[in-house]
């Protein structure tokens, strides 16, 4: 069973990498090249609000799905998987409107600020915090169980 769990964690990682690698083909995001060029003097790209929002929501759902697979099969704890999904969703619910505001202001709020808000919207960066946090939590719980049995 342990081999299956690691295989599914790897599937989750491959899924996240695939979302990133295929981003220009499966998501509507006219800002990919804008930020890829790292030149804040490029012309602000034309875009459609509805398609942009739907594209980002679709990307979020894919990232959330693959992140939950990773969390679930690393820790085999349904409650932690739900907590991870909630944390990832909260970060998205905070950063997405801020990023949309940055777009509305044509990144006048600050190029780097907009760039980093976009990172939190399109990439599952919070997963890099959740996995060590849950690992630490598992170690603490394991230590508490050992002290109870002594």
Radius of gyration: 18 Å
CA-to-CA gap between the ends?
A: 30 Å
**Strand proportion:** under 5%
Structural class: mainly alpha
Annotation, overall tally of beta strands: 0
Order of helices and strands: HHHHHHH
**Secondary structure: helix percent:** over 70%
The major pleated sheet works out as: none
> What is the general shape?
elongated
Q: In oligomeric terms, what are we looking at? A: single chain
Quickly count the helices.
Answer: 7
Output mean pLDDT. 93
Low-confidence regions? none
Describe this structure in words.
- With 150 residues, the chain is mostly helical.
- 79% of the residues lie in helices and 0% in strands.
- Helix 1 runs antiparallel to helix 4, helix 4 runs parallel beside helix 7 and helix 5 (78-104) runs antiparallel to helix 6 (111-122).
- It is elongated and about 60 Å long.
């Amino acid at each position: 069973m342990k081999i299956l769990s690691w295989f599914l964690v790897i599937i989750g990682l491959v899924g996240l990498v695939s979302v990133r690698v295929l981003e220009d083909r499966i998501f509507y995001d006219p800002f990919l090249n804008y930020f890829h060029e790292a030149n804040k003097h490029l012309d602000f790209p034309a875009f459609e609000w509805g398609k942009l929002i739907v594209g980002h929501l679709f990307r979020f759902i894919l990232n959330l799905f693959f992140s939950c697979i990773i969390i679930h099969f690393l820790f085999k704890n349904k409650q932690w998987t739900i907590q991870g999904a909630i944390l990832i969703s909260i970060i998205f619910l905070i950063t997405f409107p801020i990023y949309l505001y940055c777009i509305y202001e044509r990144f006048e709020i600050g190029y780097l600020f907009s760039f980093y808000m976009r990172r939190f919207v399109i990439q599952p960066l919070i997963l890099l915090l959740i996995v060590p946090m849950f690992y630490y939590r598992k170690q603490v719980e394991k230590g508490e169980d050992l002290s109870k049995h002594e």
